[in-house]
Design a protein that fits this description.
Length: about 110
C-alpha cells in the first residue's frame, strides 16, 4: 500500500475530477478509482482493485486486493480479496466473470 492521503483531496484524471478521497485513505498499487468515486475517511483499497464509477466507500471500510466494485455501489462493509461486489448496500456476487467472459463460482 502507498502512504495515505491526508485531508480531503480531489484526484484528477486526464480531463476532469475523477474521485474525491477523504482523510487518511490508503490506495493500493494499480488500484483504479473511476469517475465520481467517493472515499470516506480511513478507507483502504487493496492492490489491483477496480472501483466502478460513482461508487461510495463509507468511512473506515477496507476493500481487499483484486476486487471489482460495481458502478454506484455503496460499500458499507469490508470486502475480501478476489471478489466482485455490487449494489446498495453492497453484496458480493456468487459468480465472478473471467477474462474470457465465462463465469466462475467464488470459493469462500
Ligand atoms: C460490477 C460489474 C463489473 C459486473 O459485471 P458482470 O460480472 O458482467 O456482472 P453481470 O452483468 O453478470 O451481473 C451480475 C449481477 O450483478 C448485478 N449488477 C451488475 N452490476 C451492477 C451494478 N453496478 N449495480 C447493481 N447491481 C449490479 C446484476 O444485476 C446481476 O444481478 P443478479 O445476479 O441478481 O441477476 C459491472 O456491472 C460494473 O458495474 N462495471 C463498472 C463499470 C465502470 O464503472 N467502468 C468505469 C469506466 S470509467
Amino acid at each position: 500500500m502507498k502512504p495515505g492521503l491526508t485531508g480531503w483531496e480531489q484526484v484528477n484524471g486526464r480531463n476532469a475530477v475523477t474521485a474525491v478521497v477523504g482523510h487518511d485513505c490508503e490506495i493500493g498499487s494499480w488500484a483504479h478509482l473511476s469517475v465520481g468515486v467517493k472515499l470516506g475517511g480511513n478507507v483502504r483499497v487493496g492492490d489491483f482493485s477496480f472501483i466502478g464509477m460513482g461508487a461510495a466507500l463509507l468511512p473506515g471500510v477496507e476493500v481487499g486486493r483484486r476486487v471489482i466494485i460495481g458502478a454506484n455501489a455503496v460499500v458499507n462493509d469490508n470486502i475480501p480479496d478476489d471478489v466482485t461486489a455490487v449494489g446498495v448496500p453492497v453484496r458480493i456476487l456468487e459468480k465472478q466473470r473471467r477474462l474470457d467472459g465465462s463465469l466462475q463460482k467464488i470459493r469462500r
